[in-house]
Amino acid sequence: MKVQGTTWIAAPWLAVGVNGDKRMREAFLDKLRVAATCAVVLLHTVTGVMDSADMSLYPTEYKIFQMILDLVCWSVPMFVIISGYLFLNPARRIGVGKMLKKYCRRIVLALFLFGVPYACMEQIALEGGFRWGMIGKAFVMVLKGQGWSHMWYLYLILILYLLTPALRYLLARIPRAVIWGAELVIFTGCSVLPWVSWVWGLELQPVLPDQVIYLFYYICGYLFVTGRQEGLFGKGGRTLRKKGIVMPGILLTGILLSAAGMVCSRLSGTYTVQMAYAYPFTALLALLLFGWGMTWPAQKEAQRTKAAGFWKQAAALSFTVYLVHPVFINVAYKALHVTPLSFAVGISLPLFFLGTLVLSAASAWILRRTAILRDYVL
């Protein structure tokens, strides 16, 4: 069984604040990262069931799973937006050398250190035993992107990292209006037109490749961070300002309405749109959540509380949690043949999710105790 998903890739804990102030810790990124990681674990808990069972036998559970997926798919765009917020920040100095030697190297090492064992496990499960030749085949599988499918995001983020120096160069020289126009074109071509085509059965052209939507999210991070530096956000992150005032409560209302709308759309059972991360309402929810997060008060490093320390430590585990959590899902669903469908979903699904999350967090904490893994991979 292969589990689909994504993750946040580790980045510097201290982000450059407004006007390049490094003393201000943008703690909202920690909270968003932790929330998105939990959402990814829930997403895989659900997709793992859907991939391994005939859901036509469980119409009610299928409807519930669709609602959950709609509500948690914002996590993937959120990770990409956070990456763009940090790596496309013009106040940070990130050259080609640093991107290759530090960040790209980290992704490549993670791909092979985790991807090869996972590919071997997949072969062992299929053949019912181990052969030494499986190791070499596993390396080839990783090179071809044929390992566990949750590793796909590492390939994506590696490409974005490689593009980052060029993007930083271009974004610094392109007029703001052109950037907004390009974002509108990408969003329309990757999200709106495919959605309209799906809902009304139309063939609208041109429609951009699905993968381009991640470039949209990455550049959204740039627009968020430069907007903050240019005074879009009020002092302390308490208000969002641009030609008027948009209070955090309005953003939260938009979040709740978006989530409610997605849930209601699935209740009839006739709305079958499945666009994953290019879904227009998923994009809207991710952007609203990030904007809402930016309104949370900033905190000076010298004024950290125990709560802030918790979020920082929890966020530090997020990348490792992402890498290891499918192991526990695979063991339960494939090896033990036990899924949430084996019991009452209302009770079993939360237990499977929490169990996977706790075991993954514990494993992540143990792995990060190894200095070489913590410093160069995790």
Architecture overview:
The chain has 378 residues and is mainly α. Helices cover 66% and strands 2% of the residues. A two-stranded antiparallel ribbon has the order 1-4. Strands 2-3 form a two-stranded antiparallel ribbon. Strand 2 and strand 3 form a beta hairpin. The longest helix is centred in the first third of the chain and has 32 residues. The chain is globular, with a radius of gyration of 21 Å. The chain starts with 23 loop residues before the first strand and ends with a helix. InterPro entries: Acyl_transf_3_dom (IPR002656).
SSE arrangement:
Blueprint: E1 24-25, H1 28-52, H2 59-72, H3 75-87, H4 96-127, H5 133-144, H6 152-171, H7 176-200, H8 213-229, E2 240-241, E3 245-246, H9 248-267, H10 280-294, E4 299-300, H11 306-316, H12 318-335, H13 345-367, H14 371-376
Antiparallel strand pairs: 1-4, 2-3
Helix pairs in contact: 1-2, 1-3, 1-10, 1-11, 1-12, 1-13, 2-9, 3-8, 3-10, 4-5, 4-6, 7-8, 9-10, 12-13
